[in-house]
TrEMBL record:
EC number: 1.15.1.1
Co-factor(s): Mn(2+)
Domain Manganese/iron superoxide dismutase C-terminal: 95-195
Alphabetical keyword list: Metal-binding, Oxidoreductase
Function summary: Destroys radicals which are normally produced within the cells and which are toxic to biological systems.
Full protein name: Superoxide dismutase
Matches recorded under PROSITE patterns: SOD_MN
Uppermost EC category: oxidoreductase
Family the entry assigns: Belongs to the iron/manganese superoxide dismutase family.
InterPro entries: Mn/Fe_SOD, Mn/Fe_SOD_BS, Mn/Fe_SOD_C, Mn/Fe_SOD_N, Mn/Fe_SOD_N_sf, SOD_C_sf
Manganese/iron superoxide dismutase N-terminal domain mapped to chain residues: 5-88
Length: 201
């Protein structure tokens, strides 16, 4: 077995005009495929550790030193992108009453949550991700990670994530990352976020 690139759960142009088809082709077919290929190349050197990337990245010290950084980068890249595709949809969705109440209790209101998420995404220097996670205390938290680092390595369970690498937005939004972040909020698959929240809390 090897890790395989999952198909998108919708057409490449399904998220237009918020996320354009050219970006989706490049991002999924080229960037995500490269993470898959490079993760497989690393895993092949140590068949004894298996292929459970979530378990491996939850305990990075357990990864053999000669492939550790390759798996953090490429195994993380695969997990982050596989999740990211599922976190978007062309359908209109909304948080469940339970998740909406947790967001209100944590951030004050949905608008304040969106502002906190947007600020974290805007100020993530260089390449990385911004997340809504369930932390070790079972509470919601907005956090961000550099490169392809996953919150799983910090003991946190991601329930929403936004890729803020330039490859995620530069074709359409050029240098204007805030417009891309705003557009993302129009395509969030809250049904998937609800599902992850229910499993994580
Ligand atoms: Fe990406």
């Amino acid at each position: 077995m090897a890790i395989i690139l999952p198909d998108l759960p919708y057409a490449y142009d399904a998220l237009e005009p918020y996320i354009d088809a050219e970006t989706m082709h490049l991002h999924h077919d080229k960037h995500h495929q490269a993470y898959v290929n490079n993760a497989n190349a690393a895993l092949e050197k140590h068949p004894e550790i298996g292929e459970d990337l979530e378990a491996l990245l939850a305990d990075v010290e357990s990864i053999p030193a000669d492939i550790r950084q390759a798996l953090i980068n490429n195994g993380g890249g695969h997990l982050n992108h596989a999740l990211f595709w599922e976190l978007m949809t062309p359908e209109k969705t909304a948080p469940s009453a339970e998740l909406a109440a947790a967001i209100d209790a944590t951030f004050g209101s949905f608008e304040e949550f969106q502002a906190a998420f947007t600020a974290a995404a805007t100020t993530r220097f260089g390449s990385g991700w911004v997340w809504l996670v369930v932390n070790k205390e079972g509470k919601l938290e907005v956090t961000s990670t550099a490169n392809q680092d996953t919150p799983i390595s910090e003991g946190k369970k991601p329930i929403l994530g936004l890729d803020v690498w330039e490859h995620a937005y530069y074709v359409k939004y050029r240098n204007v990352r805030p417009d891309y972040i705003k557009a993302f909020f129009s395509v969030i698959n809250w049904n998937k976020v609800d599902e992850l929240y229910a499993a994580a809390k």
